[in-house]
Amino acid sequence: MFTTVLVPTDGSRGAEAAITHATELGQTYGATLHALYVVDTGAEPAALETDQRETLREPSERRGREATIRVTDQAEANDLTAAREVREGAPHTEILEYADEQDVDLIVMGTHGRTDVDHARLGSTTERVLTRSDTPVLSVRLREDAAGTDADVRPYEDIVIPIDGSDAAERAAETALDVAEKYDASVHAVYVLDTTTYDLKDAPQSIIGLLKEGGRAAADAVADMARERGLSATTSLRRGVPTDELLAYTDDVDADLIAMGTRGRNIGAGRLLGSTTARVVRRSTIPVLTVS
């Protein structure tokens, strides 16, 4: 399924966690690893002359070459085919264009994360990529204290699949099931009745019943598909704030991966799931696979 994996890197030590995940996936799938570094020309002062711009970019370009070489060296040390490139421009735009040009199957990116849910706005390169990408994106929490090691990557033994009845969530489930089958992982399908959208005290019990029934049916469908592939599967129906409930559930089942849609909708409502996905990506300590 993943034959070409793209790893955008900024050259930081913390980014090693994303590189290690990408390398492990490359080994599992026999994929080619592509390393990309983007010199952010949008950060340059507009009044600079051409020669001044070139002088300013030289250190960044050198850092980009060194960063991408580290990725390809690690890939080749694990007997993987690798390619690298340094580009200039807006990072998220260049990443998406490169993924399209190279027919990339998976983008693996680091995210610094943010535990302050009051600052729930998009802004980072990773978030811009995952909200615009037609290619699945694996977001990995970057480590600030040290370089990543092989010990940072846990086998994907338990995968959580949030369900909301949307097409995007179904596509995410299909991708997650492919990954689960490759790793012989257990699947945990979960639906959260969103108490921030529905006033459960005032809503008619018939409405609540329909929401529960729809969520349970969606989770059961994913579990059935997992079992058809010979995988262990469980389902859960929870209520509360979606991000909080999903993260708590991943802790409960000791999950190694979360797979979510990026443009889903809650069952019975028109609220976009994108904000929940973005918050989960920011706050999750385990990798999050997003599928549009």
- The helix content, as a percent range, equals 40-55%
State the major sheet.
10 strands, mixed
CATH homology superfamily name of the largest domain: HUPs
pLDDT < 50 runs, ≥5 residues: 114-123, 146-151, 264-273
Structural class: alpha/beta
Strand arrangement, major sheet: 3-2-1-4-5-10-9-6-7-8
| Integer average pLDDT | 84
CATH architecture of the largest domain: 3-Layer(aba) Sandwich
Supply the number of structural domains.
2
- Number of helical regions: 8
Strand content is 15-25%
- The SSE order reads EHEHEHEHEEHEHEHEHE
Assign the CATH class of the largest domain.
Alpha Beta
Query: Which term fits the overall shape?
Result: globular
By CATH, the topology of the largest domain is Rossmann fold
SS elements, strand count: 10
Can you describe what's shown?
This is UspA domain-containing protein. With 292 residues, this protein is an alpha/beta fold. It is globular and about 70 Å long. It has a 10-stranded mixed beta sheet with strand order 3-2-1-4-5-10-9-6-7-8, with helices on both faces. It contains 8 helices and 10 strands. Helix 2 links the parallel strand 2 (32-40) and strand 3. The chain has 2 domains: 4-152, 3-Layer(aba) Sandwich (Rossmann fold); 158-291, 3-Layer(aba) Sandwich (Rossmann fold), CATH 3.40.50.620.
